[in-house]
Structure formats: C-alpha cells, structure tokens
Amino acid sequence: MNSVDLAHPAEEVASHLLGSVLTHETSEGTVSISITETEAYSGAADPASHAYRGRTARNAVMFGPAGHLYVYRSHGLHWCANIVTGTDGIASAVLIRAGRVVEGEDLARQRRGAKVETPRLARGPGNFCQALGITAEHNGANLLEGASVVLSQGGPVPAELIRVGPRVGVSKAHDWEHRFYLAGDPTVSAYRLSPRARPSEGS
User: What Pfam families does this protein's entry cite (predicted)?
Assistant: First the structure.
C-alpha cells in the first residue's frame, strides 16, 4: 500500500503512514515531520473512538472523505491531529502520536521552546501539532490536494522496524493493539496505561 493510499480501515493504514511526512507551510516558514508513531481509531466498533456513538458536529470530519485532517482539543490543552481514512461515510482515522522533524527545526523549536531536546520536539500528539503549527483552523484540511498542510510519501520503512502494541492512555479498549511505531526511535512516546483502563472485548 502506498503511504498516502488512505482508502482502507484505520488499523490497516496506521502502519503504512510510518515514514510518511506531514508538511505545513506558513508565513513563518515551513516545518516537515516524518511520522514515527500512530494509533488507529475506528468508528462504531471502537469504544475509544470519538465516533463510537455516532456523528456529531465535533467528529463529522472523521466520517470522510479520506485524506482530510481531523483536529481536536485534548483535555482542553493540546491540539491533536488525525488523518481520516477508509470509506466515505464510515468513521475511521489515524492519530499521529509522534514524529521526527526533518525540515524547519528552528521554527519547530521556537514553537516548542528553546530548551526542548531535539527528539522531543514532536513526541506526543500535542507536541506534534505544536511543532507543526496545527490548530483548530486546520480541521477538515485536505492533505492531498494543495492545502497548506500536505501529506507525502517518505522513504519505505522495513517491516522488521515496525512494532505494534496497545494504545496509549485510553480507558476503553486499552488493550487493542492499534498502536504502531518505529522500534528504537527516540522520538516515539513512552507507553502509558490509563488509570481508568477497563477490560475490553474485541481486538
């Protein structure tokens, strides 16, 4: 699968997005980040998904079409970016958890703070968005057709470098292995089990 072929369920696309690059051009300059960690979230079948209980004004972008950006605020503090996948009308999206800044490190550092270590510039979904300059205004942006935020294919990632595990910090379906990341990469966030995690069914 091409890393920008998004017309598949989130759990299939999530691993293929590793190594792809998100680029954001602004009046301040350009920042590009290579994706190193993702999490898949489905719709009605996934209790941890924002779309589990159906379409709302907040999650409408998740229902497609694929290739758009779904941006939401986490805990009232941080913006988080998801790439919409799958079939139009069926909610499916991949959360971008972490990445490596490959262009515009100085600008990313201005946004994140002068003392932030390089591997931590885009580690964690909130930091990723901050480094890239993503906010609510980018919700619904088309990543494939000339928007200021663009998704492009990076170098192929060997399968032996990809690891799979449970999603970070979710309380429902916490044991579903829908998190994908690059083995040994210092930009990948640490696993954290939610203190509210509960047993779940499915996979």
Answer: Pur_DNA_glyco
Q: Tokens for 177, please give them.
A: 């292995």
Is residue 179 within 8 Å of residue 97, measured between CB atoms? yes
pLDDT along the chain (203 residues), means of 10: 76 95 96 97 87 89 95 88 95 97 98 96 97 96 89 90 92 88 96 70 48
DSSP 198: -
Indicate the burial class of 197 (C-beta count within 10 angstroms; 0-12, 13-18, 19 or more). Answer: middle
Sign of CA dihedral 28, 34, 38, 44: positive
Cβ distance 86 to 9 under 8 Å? yes
Instruction: Please name the residues in contact with 174: beta carbons below 8 A apart, sequence gap of 6 or more.
Output: 48, 166, 167, 193, 194, 197, 198, 200
List for the chain the helix, strand, coil content (%; round to 5).
20, 30, 55
Domains of the chain: 10-182 (3.10.300.10)
